[in-house]
Amino acid sequence: MKKLTKTIVTILGLILLIAIILLFPLLYNGTNEIKIIEQRFSTFDEILNQDYLQNTIVFVDIWGTYCSPCLKEFDYVAEIKEKYRDKNIKFLYLCPMRRIDHKVRWKKIIKEKQLAGIHIAVDTEELFNDIWEQNLSEPLSAKYMIPRYFIVKNGIIVVPYAAPPSSKKKLCNQIDSVLNLK
């Protein structure tokens, strides 16, 4: 009986250790350059009306934690950010998720890639549908076509199909146009 109790305690200890290791990324809350917003939003307008996005150009990146093309694009975005470091532009990352493992992976990727910008988990169908139907004016069938990029100015989507960061010249032309640099 004593041996069985010891075995059970050992197994429970290992399970607890594994749970802590797997869930540890959830404790990550970003840095000065990486803002992780844990607030729940119902509409995209609610997001755009936040103080940190007022009076600025917003480059929006909708990505997924298991989307290889999305993750590959992160390799190019630092160069774009550096070019516009002193300009009035913010980088907003929206990531759909439904399960706790998505949230763990989301924070882990943000930290590993040192993905400077504002990060919001799109964790309600209501918000996701609002982005696609109301703001991008696209059918819901298109909502899983990620990565998706667009540019917002004064709360209005002015470039609904922004180029990906890997198409640096085209994206920079789009951003320059919105910033009135061209």
TrEMBL record:
User: In terms of domain of life, where is this protein from?
Assistant: Bacteria
Identify the main location: other
Q: What is this protein called?
A: Redoxin family protein
Instruction: List locations, semicolon-separated.
Output: Cell envelope
Q: Which part of the chain is the Thioredoxin domain? A: 13-180
Sorted keywords for this record are: Cytochrome c-type biogenesis, Disulfide bond, Membrane, Redox-active center, Transmembrane, Transmembrane helix
The membrane spanning regions, by residue number, are 7-28
